[in-house]
Automatic annotation (TrEMBL):
Domain spans labelled ABC transporter: 21-271
Biological source species: Nocardia jinanensis
Protein name (database record): ABC transporter domain-containing protein
GO annotation, cellular component aspect: plasma membrane
Keywords: ATP-binding, Cell membrane, Membrane, Nucleotide-binding, Transport
Similarity-based family: Belongs to the ABC transporter superfamily.
Membrane-topology descriptor: Peripheral membrane protein
Length: 334
C-alpha cells in the first residue's frame, strides 16, 4: 500500500507527517440538539488512536459522522472531516453524498460492533466479499475469491477457503468478527474506524483479533480510530487517547500519560473504575468548589463554585504535560 512508507515516523511522532484523518471543530446535532461539540482529532499512518468514554458520550456518533452514516435526524452542523486520498485531502463535510460514498471502502473502512448483525444471514461469506468488491468495480470471480482469501488471512483466519462457504449462523462470534474485519480491509482503505469491534467477544478472542489488527495497521501504514470503553484494551493497543464526556473531548494525550496521570475528573473516575487500578482521583483537576467525588454534568464548561454559568463558556484544553491536554480552569493552580 502506498501509505506504508510513513508508518514508523508517523506512529512514533504524530507531528512528523500529514494525518490520514483530520477532524476539526466537529459538531453533530440530532434535530436541534447538539450531541457532539467541537471535537478535534488526528490519526496518522501506522497509528491507533483510541476514543474512550461512557455509553452515550458520543463516541459512535463521531465515528458515524466521519463515514456519513448518521441515523435519521442526525447531521454534521459544523466542522471539517479531512481524509487523505490519492487525489489529496478531501473534506467529507462539504463533499456531495456521491463523493462521500465513493470514499467508503476505498479510503474509509468500518469495523462495526456486533458482527452477526452486520452479516446478511442468507449470504455466504464469499457472497459478502463479492458485493463489496463489485461495488469497487472488481467483477472477475477468480480475482474476488483470491482477494477475499488474502483478506481473511490478514484478519487472522487460517482456513479461509472453508470459511468463505459459511453462513453467519455457522460461525463462532470470534470468526464472524474476523470476517467483518476482512470485509473492512479487503479494499485496502487508508483509514479504519473500529467501533467497539470486540465488545461481544471473550478476552482471548479479543486479544487475538486486536493483535492481528495492530500488526496490519503497523505493517501496512493504515490509520485506525479505535472506539471503545475498555480501558485495558486501549492502554495496550493505542498510542494516544481522546476522552469524550457529554460529547466534548475533555482530555487527550499519550495513552500511558492519560491513564497514569489523569487530569480531568471524569478521566480519573474512568481509571478508578477499572478493577485493581490505582485511583488518581486525588490528583485530578476539579472545578472550584467541587467535592472529591463530584463531576458536574457540564464539567467541560463549568468554572464556577455554584455552577451558575454552566454552558455559557467552554473551559479550554490546556497543556498539562508533554502532548497531554485537559479541560481545566485557567484559574486553577496546578
Amino acid at each position: 500500500m502506498t501509505h506504508s512508507t510513513t508508518t514508523t515516523t508517523a506512529a512514533t511522532d504524530p507531528a512528523a507527517a500529514t494525518p490520514m484523518l483530520s477532524v476539526r471543530d466537529l459538531e453533530v446535532r440530532y434535530g436541534g440538539l447538539p450531541v457532539v461539540h467541537g471535537v478535534d482529532l488526528e490519526v496518522h499512518a501506522g497509528e491507533i488512536l483510541g476514543l474512550i468514554g461512557e455509553s452515550g458520550s458520543g463516541k459512535s456518533t463521531v465515528g458515524r459522522a466521519m463515514l456519513g452514516l448518521l441515523p435519521a435526524g442526525g447531521r454534521v452542523s459544523r466542522g471539517r472531516i479531512h481524509v487523505g486520498t490519492p487525489d489529496g485531502p478531501t473534506d467529507l463535510v462539504s463533499a456531495s453524498t456521491r463523493e462521500r460514498r465513493g470514499q467508503l471502502g476505498r479510503t474509509l473502512g468500518l469495523i462495526p460492533q456486533g458482527a452477526n448483525a452486520s452479516l446478511n444471514p442468507v449470504m455466504t461469506c464469499l457472497q459478502h466479499f463479492r458485493v463489496v468488491l463489485r461495488n469497487r468495480g472488481i467483477r472477475d470471480r477468480a480475482q474476488i475469491r483470491e482477494r477475499a482469501t488474502s483478506s481473511l488471512l490478514r484478519a487472522g483466519i487460517h482456513d479461509p477457503e472453508r470459511v468463505l462457504e459459511l453462513y453467519a449462523h455457522e460461525m463462532s462470534g470470534g470468526m464472524a468478527q474476523r470476517v467483518v474485519v476482512g470485509l473492512a480491509i479487503v479494499t485496502n482503505p487508508s483509514v479504519l474506524i473500529a467501533d467497539e469491534p470486540t465488545s461481544a467477544l471473550d478476552v482471548t478472542v479479543q486479544r487475538k483479533l486486536l493483535d492481528n489488527l495492530t500488526r496490519m495497521v503497523h505493517e501496512e501504514g493504515t490509520a485506525c480510530l479505535l472506539i471503545s470503553h475498555d480501558l485495558g484494551l486501549m492502554a495496550h493497543y493505542c498510542q494516544r487517547l481522546l476522552v469524550l464526556y457529554h460529547g466534548v473531548v475533555v482530555e487527550s494525550g499519550p495513552a500511558a500519560e492519560v491513564l497514569h496521570r489523569p487530569v480531568h475528573p471524569f478521566t480519573a473516575r474512568l481509571v478508578a473504575s477499572v478493577p485493581g487500578a490505582r485511583s488518581r482521583a486525588a490528583h485530578a483537576y476539579r472545578a472550584p468548589g467541587a467535592g472529591a467525588d463530584q463531576v458536574c454534568p457540564n464539567q467541560a464548561w463549568c468554572a464556577q463554585p455554584d455552577h451558575a454559568t454552566c454552558g455559557e463558556r467552554r473551559l479550554p484544553l490546556r497543556e498539562v504535560g508533554s502532548r497531554h491536554h485537559a479541560r481545566t480552569s485557567p484559574q486553577e493552580d496546578r
